[in-house]
């Protein structure tokens, strides 16, 4: 075998089966290397649609796909379900709770976690949609709080139960606010005749002076309009500084009586990055070379949300799925080049632009320098995400659900799971 | 309104949104009564298919349906999500943790719980599929134990990890054993090339001398044959008397080294029955009159797994979905007759027979006195269960999944959720 001819096959360990890790594995599949893909879950999560799980539009099973059946056909890729606790850069090995795993090349793609910017009271109470379990928990929370509201006689306390504060005016916050508004005022209103759901409030809080920071101002304005048409209160230039069980505290403004605080305001690199003793940029992201490896450890690559790199214009590469995918594939390419003794190639980020869906029939898109909004942007978003979804069967089921929800103003998934 | 003309509308409270309670609600829908349906979950669970959730064939969302959207169109039926803690028969009211709820008529349909017959060590370690969450937990357990087996070097411990003991040779035990065999040896074998899954063992233990007690001996024999063809070890006349973390203890036989014990060997009435101070039969079931109410409280009906009643031949009415459905409807009918001052009617159980599916293309059926086995019985089972499933959309998705699993020897749902 060629593998033998070139001596012992190089062992590549990939940490994380998100977009970065999965595409790194795809890039190495079928080549003359042994790949071990590690994730603490046995499934890949299609993160861009997590907010739809949180809003009961999709079932968890529809946006998660078993890693083993993805790598099944790739003979040189094995999977291990484990939590990586520490990396020993000198000894070139990493540690899970059970095992010590040596590597010749390492790809760190462990992603990011929610960033509460040190707000302890928020960290304790906020709901997120950063992974499958938190999205399911948020879904149960929304439905359960309505069941509690049914039993609540005191109008003031009921009002607080029916008030949802969403922090963060980025794509996730905007998309979730829109779909939550439709869930409550178009779907659940049919299920809770005894509840005055007109009392319900959805408040989207963004610290910047506009929504969707970084997107074209025109699109941001359109997004705001659309949200307000749906009944969402948009509060710009407002900062959340804390939370109690019944209130959300704002800077220089009276608190909001609300029982549910949803936090989408920021991420920081996976804690693994903090435990490696390497240079980190804002948000704990690991600084990498243009070739995507650690400056002093060329055998260690970092990709996706965990990595920090700037484009030629000095702008940090965004923490989005397309960047992770491109970096994962590029890391694979460079590893193969290194093995063959070829010069490494610098990574170049191709910005695919941004698409944000704002509920039914509405979206904004900024693609290849051109902007679009309304129905077309919504349709484009739908198609792109459907095509990106891993697994033909999942695509089929997601499409069924979307069609169902769309046609019947329904929400497929409304189970409160404990 | 007619309601006013006849004076105050009678208030009927139904405890439990399973088959019995749901059909009682349907029977009272649109009539001149106020109905309050109470369940601790906000969804109805299609219990006969829980074992397929446990085996990763179906997603939880596909066999559970929100109660509120079932009763949505029934103006006189309201829903309350709450756990009923106590019934005060004298005061004609019941208590949840939060509320005191009075009733004119009560329908108790709280179902049954797993019966461990006092085996504490089993109760602590056994896995069940008695409700949605336990079925999901069992699914995660099966998949997680395979991930653990991948890391296990010691062949003896790996063997124990890969040994599944299923207790109870009734329909649930037989159906789960068959589908687990297919999951492991037809589906997962593709995902775990590094695992010697031929080492895996599935052992079905039944205390009686035959499987499917009560069914035609010929069918029982066929079920056993089919299971053994699939690789399941069937142990009849064997009793499980205890369990440790690594062993299942048998009466008069050496213990089995196994990490996973699945218990389907029996049920007892919901604990609510024990807290009412009324006459109970075997399994804690509440003894009811031929009209389905308590002997000394004609306004209190008990239906489904919770109720004990004998048919004219003196055989107890079985704890199966069709019986619960018939009793639920009958209780509704009798309540309406009582309100109108008409004589109550005794309940007559129409035995629809039994159908058990034994994996792919195989089943046994005993319907209207006639027996069938093999492909036809399997097909009949498929159709009946599909038609019975609540919610057109759920039927559609379940069919999609079944077709997918059938055609591609796949299992749709293989997520380990923590």
Distance between the termini of chain A: 53 Å
- Briefly, what CATH class of the largest domain in chain A? Alpha Beta
Strand order in the largest sheet of chain A: 5-2-1-9-21-20
> Could you list the spans of chain A in which at least 5 consecutive residues all have pLDDT below 50?
1-6
Structural class of chain A: alpha/beta
What overall geometry of chain A do the principal axes of the alpha carbons give?
globular
Instruction: Return Rg of chain A in Å.
Output: 22 Å
Tally of separate helices of chain A: 13
| Multimerization status | homodimer
Greatest contact between two chains: A-B, 43 and 43 residues
How many E-type strands of chain A? 25
Which fold name is given in CATH as the topology of the largest domain in chain A?
FAD/NAD(P)-binding domain
């Amino acid at each position: 075998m060629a593998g033998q001819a070139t001596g012992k096959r190089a062992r590549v360990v990939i940490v994380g089966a998100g977009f970065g890790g999965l595409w790194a594995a795809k890039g190495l599949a079928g080549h003359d290397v042994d790949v071990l893909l590690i994730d603490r879950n046995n499934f890949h999560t299609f993160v861009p649609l997590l907010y739809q799980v949180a809003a009961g539009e999709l079932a968890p099973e529809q946006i998660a796909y078993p890693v083993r059946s993805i790598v099944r056909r790739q003979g040189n890729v094995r999977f291990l379900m484990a939590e990586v606790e520490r990396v020993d850069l000198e000894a070139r090995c990493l540690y899970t709770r059970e095992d010590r795993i040596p590597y010749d090349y390492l790809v760190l793609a462990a992603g990011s976690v929610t960033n509460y910017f040190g707000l302890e009271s928020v960290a304790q109470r906020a709901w997120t949609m950063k992974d499958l379990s938190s999205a399911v928990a948020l879904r149960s929370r929304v439905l359960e709080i309505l069941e509690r509201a049914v039993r609540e006689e005191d109008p003031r306390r009921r009002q607080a139960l029916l008030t949802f504060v969403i922090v963060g005016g980025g794509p996730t916050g905007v998309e979730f606010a829109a779909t939550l508004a439709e869930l409550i005022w178009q779907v659940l209103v049919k299920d809770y005749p005894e509840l005055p759901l007109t009392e319900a409030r959805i408040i989207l809080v963004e610290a910047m002076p506009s929504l969707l920071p970084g997107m074209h101002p025109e699109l941001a304005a359109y997004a705001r309009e659309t949200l307000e048409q749906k009944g969402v209160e948009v509060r710009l230039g407002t900062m959340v500084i804390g939370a109690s069980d019944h209130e959300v505290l704002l800077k220089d403004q009276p608190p909001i009586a609300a029982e549910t605080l949803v936090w989408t305001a920021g991420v920081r690199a996976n804690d693994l990055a903090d435990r490696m003793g390497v240079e980190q940029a804002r948000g704990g992201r690991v600084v990498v070379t243009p070739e995507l490896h650690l400056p002093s450890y060329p055998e260690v690559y970092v990709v996706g949300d965990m990595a920090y790199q700037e484009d030629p214009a000095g702008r940090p590469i965004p923490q989005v799925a397309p960047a992770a995918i491109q970096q994962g594939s590029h890391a694979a390419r460079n590893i193969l080049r290194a093995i063959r003794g070829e010069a490494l190639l610098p990574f170049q980020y191709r910005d695919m632009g941004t698409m944000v869906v704002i509920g039914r029939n509405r979206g904004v898109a900024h693609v290849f320098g051109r902007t679009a909004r309304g129905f077309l942007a919504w349709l484009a978003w739908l198609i792109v995400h459907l095509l990106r979804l891993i697994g033909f069967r999942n695509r089929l089921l997601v499409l069924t659900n979307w069609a169902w929800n769309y046609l019947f103003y329904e929400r497929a998934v409304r189970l409160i799971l404990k």
